[in-house]
Design brief:
- Three copies of one chain form a homotrimer.
- The first copy, chain A, has helices at 2-9, 11-41, 47-50, 57-60, 67-94, 100-122, 129-152.
- The first copy, chain A, has a single domain (9-34, 65-152), classed as Membrane associated eicosanoid/glutathione metabolism-like domain (Four Helix Bundle (Hemerythrin (Met), subunit A), Up-down Bundle), CATH 1.20.120.
- Chain A is mainly α and 155 residues long.
- The longest helix of chain A has 31 residues, at 11-41.
- Chains in contact: A-B, A-C, B-C.
Chain lengths: 155, 155, 155
């Protein structure tokens, strides 16, 4: 049990735990935003969901694709595609004994880039705002991957 | 080596390992269900897949979208969106020294909610069955995130 | 701090760290391939992206679905569906004290199967090339899940 406590007592690991949780909560928020847009625009993917808003023929017209809903869904999928690598590589990076300040720099820039990316996607801001925020998070993840492979390479 | 053994010997960590594996296996099963529906309804996304069922023009008619296949795929994507946060936050939660009974309560409710969610999606059950099962898993994950941030906050 | 160093000094864990990073980098590469195809075929999902290539009506014609882009996106989603279980189950497997040689066998076959799967999807190779490479990675993940549940089962 002592070992577990020591893992979470390590400052780099605490920083990872904090920022990983923050970006996952941000990603989870996309589900609520999708639900909000589906309800306000009445655009559903499943007949049983549309049925809450009308019966029979009336329900069918709510089975449709709405551009705002699709935008939120693309944002959510982009989160998955980028936050999953951060979770995996970031965990291994946190275990590879980086300097606390360097680790914090990586985690903060990544979290900041994903939060900015969400605003850039949903407002939407003109390009290349979204492209650059995506690339920032991408480069941070590559930088952590380089440290992991330098520390732990065992092919 | 001793340290690794001690990590997996911790009861809370064992519980996490068990339930994380169970929900991941459940999610992996969605691939088999998709394959089953694609083959029985003959609805494929790739020309090279349809080619196994007919040549030339005959193959083209199998390149189509089937509502049952799309339902399984939406269920699979919903799993990804919800099980990824559980994996990440649940791991950090398991390392934050929760009571075993509290941890088991979280893991069991989450796994149960995702299994029920799958039945609610695929049968399908009338709403709000699916909505409530989704929300149950969502709230469990938020509760674990709260414990992680309370234990390890390091911004 | 010593404990963290010891975790990453464990050879099985190093092997996991290496192969998890490799498959995540491979998955991240799909984003670049998608961007490349979107730009060369001029097929965008967002009006603000198409706006870089033309104004007003000219931009609208770039808001379209291209079969090559969709193929890369299906490949990317398939990566997510299969690499997420590998990350989670593989981490727990690495902590369940497997033999180094057995662990390396699992990790190498999984990484190889996903790299081959990408070539089979994007060239594309005739079936069952892609199907078999997918199934190989799937079976490896199930085998690791079996070891995890045998070592750590705590329901």
């Amino acid at each position: 049990m002592a070992k577990l406590t020591q893992l979470i007592d390590n400052e780099v690991f605490q920083a990872y735990a904090t920022y990983a949780t923050v970006v996952l909560l941000k990603m989870m928020m996309m589900s609520l935003i999708t639900a909000y847009f589906r309800m306000t625009t009445k655009a559903f993917a499943n007949p049983e969901d549309a049925a809450s808003f009308g019966k029979g023929e009336a329900a069918k017209k709510y089975l449709r694709i709405d551009p705002d809903v699709e935008r939120v869904r693309r944002n959510h999928l982009n989160d998955l595609e980028n936050i999953v690598p951060f979770l995996g590589i970031g965990l291994l990076y946190a275990l590879s004994s980086p300097e606390l300040s360097t680790a914090l720099l990586h985690f903060r820039i990544f979290a900041g880039s994903r939060i900015f990316h969400t605003f850039a996607y949903l407002i939407p801001l003109p390009q290349p705002s979204r492209g650059l925020s995506w690339m920032t998070g991408y480069v941070v993840t590559i930088s952590m991957a380089y440290k992991v492979l330098k520390t732990a390479l065992h092919l």
